[in-house]
């Protein structure tokens, strides 16, 4: 099989025709706040992750005045202290900012 023979169409699509196209028309034009075509990852991901973990895991350490600087946090990496086997070090990576 080739071409149109390969395509799977269910009976509802055949009956509705372009109805599906009308429903999805324009979805690609939606703009998400704080994002454009050059945005990498999820904006402010770490700020939201830390805020959501704040009550139980972080015991309230993240406060409202911390949020502006956490908006610039782009990554958190961990370094295991294998030789001494006595813990780990977290490194916080930020974009350039005023803080």
Mean pLDDT: 80
Rg is 24 Å
Which word captures the global form? elongated
| SSE succession | HHHHEE
Q: How many DSSP-defined strands? A: 2
Taking the alpha carbons of the first and last residues, their distance comes to 62 Å
- Placed side by side, the strands forming the largest sheet appear as 1-2
Kindly name the structural category: alpha+beta
Largest sheet: 2 strands, antiparallel
Low-confidence stretches: none
Number of helical regions = 4
Percent range for helical residues? Answer: 25-40%
Beta-strand portion reads 15-25%
Secondary structure elements and pairings:
Blueprint: H1 11-16, H2 19-24, H3 45-53, H4 67-70, E1 73-80, E2 88-94
Antiparallel strand pairs: 1-2
Characterization of this structure:
- This protein is an alpha+beta fold and 99 residues long.
- It has helices spanning 11-16, 19-24, 45-53, 67-70, and strands spanning 73-80, 88-94.
- 25% of the residues lie in helices and 15% in strands.
- The termini are far apart.
- It has a two-stranded antiparallel sheet with strand order 1-2.
- The protein contains 4 helices and 2 strands; from the N terminus they run ααααββ.
